[in-house]
Amino acid sequence: MNPTSFTIRAYTRADSQQCTNCFISNVPRFFSRDEIAEFKEWLGKLENKLTDSTADAGIYYHVISNHEQIVGCGGFALKDNNREVVFAWGLIDQQFHKKGYGKALFEYRLNEAGFIYPGMDILLDTSQHSFTFFQKYGFKVEKITPDFYAPGMDRYDMRHSP
After folding, report:
1. Residues 6+ positions from 112 with CB-CB distance below 8 Å
2. Is the N or C terminus of the chain more exposed, i.e. has fewer CB atoms within 10 Å?
3. pLDDT value of position 61
4. DSSP state, 5?
5. Closest residue by Cα to residue 67 from 1, 3, 156
6. For the residues of 112-135, what is the DSSP string, one character each?
7. pLDDT at 55 over 60
8. Could you read off the pLDDT of 4-43 as tens digits, one per residue?
9. Could you say which DSSP state residue 162 is in?
10. First-to-last C-alpha distance (Å) of the chain
11. Which domains, and CATH codes, for the chain?
12. Given strand 140-150, what is the order of strands in its sheet?
C-alpha cells in the first residue's frame, strides 16, 4: 500500500475493532496500556452520539487503503468553550508509520478544522515522541507534564493559532 491510494471517510460503528487494533499497534511507544480502555470508551461514546442526531459528536475520520483496511484514524471537535477546536486520537497503525499516511490525515484534519471552524485555535496533546511532528505545522508547546501518560511518557499540550 502507498499513501497515494487511500481515502478518508467518516467513522462508523463497524470501524471500532480496526481502530482499536491500530491503537494497540502503537502501545507502548506512543500510547500507554492504560489508554487502550480510554480509547475504547471514547469510541463507545462516539458511537452513541452517532445515533443521536442532536449531539455534536465531533468529526472522526479514518485513512482507508484500497482494500478497505483501516490504517489510521483521527478527528477533531469543538471544545466545550466553543472557542477552540481540539484534535482527538490521531494515530496510524505502527506498520504504516513513515509512509505518508499520518501526514496526509493530519493535513486533512487541519484543513477541515480550519474550514469548519475558521479563525479558531486548535489544541492537541501528545507525547515527547511526536511533538516535533506538530511543530512543523506551527503548533507551539504550551505545557509539558512529566510522566502524565505513564512513567517516562510526558504530555505535551500544544496550540495552533491561525
Report:
1. 59, 76
2. C
3. 84
4. S
5. 1
6. HHHHHSTT-EEEEEEETTTHHHHH
7. no
8. 678 898 888 899 999 999 999 999 999 999 999 999 999 9
9. -
10. 34
11. 7-160 (3.40.630.30)
12. 7-10, 59-64, 70-78, 84-92, 121-127, 153-160, 140-150
Q: What is the tally of helices (H) and strands (E) in the chain?
A: 4, 7
CA distance 38 to 44: 10
Segment 73-91, tens digit of pLDDT: 999 988 887 899 999 999 9
Exposure of 140 by Cβ count < 10 A (0-12 exposed, 13-18 middle, 19+ buried)?
exposed
Mean pLDDT of the chain, nearest integer = 89
Which residue's entry shows cell 516535533?
132
Which grid cell is 97? 508509520
Q: Look up the pTM and report it.
A: 0.89
Measuring CA to CA, how many Å separate 90 from each of 52, 53, 59, 61? 24, 24, 12, 9
Cβ count within 10 A of residue 74: 24
The enclosing H or E element of 37 equals: helix 34-50
Q: Are 158 and 124 contacting, i.e. CB atoms less than 8 angstroms apart?
A: yes
